[in-house]
Amino acid sequence: MIKLDNIPTTPPEDLDRDEIEDKTDELAERLGELQKVLYAEQKHSVLVIFQGMDAAGKDGAVKNVFKDCHHHGVKVHSFKKPTDAELAQDFLWRVHQKVPPKGMIHIFNRSHYEDILVQRVHGWIDDEQAEKRMKAINAFEELLTFDNNTLLFKFYLHISFDQQAEELQERIDEPEKHWKHNPNDWKEREHWSEYRRHYEYAINESKTPWTIVPVDKRWYRNYIMCKTLVERLEALNMQYPPLPL
């Protein structure tokens, strides 16, 4: 049973930042190479899910982790408040349309898990509905992984309460970050404990495991994500297709 309070949001103290950043650059370059083979081979697809509290660094993770990947093979989808058309369908309808075809990496900046997090925190669904949705999510992810050869990476960006306050304040203090400022983020912060409790539920009830990524130091976030992606993609032993006969 994972308890987020028991997991640090910072890197181990004995790590050398410069050394880790050099390793991260190497891993990001290797990820770019693997992405090209994935695109050419057309046997697997990759779905990367980023979830975390506001200001946990989801946008920055996309920018830094996938910097050496070719843009033709990577697409980012953000799931915000559902439209009226989306609300008229089941909650997974809009998500299923964005899953990756073979050869592609799709990144979900927030995902179907919002439908058992935000909606639960604000009382728009009850515990029974959340449990049924969790079962549907597990079945949906099982469909992707076993029926479509989709590698599923689920990253929870683990930020501390104090660090979140610093990140949100920077959006007010620094002109180049003003565009990120949303007063509602401070209101959502008031529900910190509820969000954490429901995140723990989603993490512990998932059949596909999550990677808990400490993000108080962004350089360590980038390293953990790159390392996780590269190790699993290398295990596929992908090959460029031979010249057709």
Structural description of this entry:
- The protein has helices at residues 17-41, 58-65, 84-87, 93-96, 118-121, 127-147, 161-173, 183-189, 192-205, 218-234; strands spanning 45-52, 74-78, 105-109, 150-158, 211-214.
- With 245 residues, the chain is an alpha/beta fold.
- The protein has a single domain, classed as Rossmann fold (3-Layer(aba) Sandwich), CATH 3.40.50.
- The mean pLDDT is 96.
- Helices cover 48% and strands 13% of the residues.
Keywords:
globular; 245 residues; 5 strands; alpha/beta; Rossmann fold; 48% helix
Please sum up the structure shown.
It contains ten helices and five strands; from the N terminus they run H-E-H-E-H-H-E-H-H-E-H-H-H-E-H. With 245 residues, the chain is α/β, with parallel strands linked by helices.
What overall form do the CA principal axes indicate?
globular
Please, how many helices? 10
Order of helices and strands: HEHEHHEHHEHHHEH
- SSE-based structural type: alpha/beta
CATH superfamily: P-loop containing nucleotide triphosphate hydrolases
* Main sheet summary: 5 strands, parallel
Give the N-terminus to C-terminus distance in angstroms: 53 Å
**CATH architecture identity:** 3-Layer(aba) Sandwich
CATH class (first level) name: Alpha Beta
> How many structural domains?
1
Radius of gyration: 18 Å
Low-confidence stretches: none
Binned strand content: 5-15%
- Total beta strand runs: 5
Helix content: 40-55%
Strand order of the largest sheet: 2-3-1-4-5
What fold name goes in the CATH topology slot?
Rossmann fold
Q: Overall mean pLDDT score?
A: 96
